[in-house]
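This part of the workshop introduces the protein records we will be handling. Getting from the letters to the tokens is the skill we practise here. An example says more than a description, so a record of this kind follows:
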Amino acid sequence: MMVTIFSGLLLFPFAILVLLLIIAKKIRIKKSKRFGLAVDVTTPFLVLTVLILLRAIWDQWFVFYIIAVFCVVAIILATIERSRAKEFRMLLVLRKTWRAYFLLMAVAYIVLIVIGITLQIIR
């Protein structure tokens, strides 16, 4: 039963996001920090789900590409931060990278779900 619940949450990472938002509201975390905390915790689940979907659709592991995209996003954001601010703050760049990665993985998740459903209909 526990495996089934974990598998369901893993395949639907936005359920984890909503669950974390509800829990954060119950334990009275500030409204301004609630969503950021939920996004930060949900990101690894999204990455894992995208990897599983890629494996299910194309029968290959794309871990290298996921890591490469993370590095490229970090480099781009670090370059922007360096040119904008007088003082370079690595923690700020990492937080921005992590949240940008959440957006990227969320879009990839939705696109992969659509591709997977379309390929199943075609087959």
About this structure: Residues 1 and 7 are 10 Å apart (CA to CA). The chain has five helices and no strands.
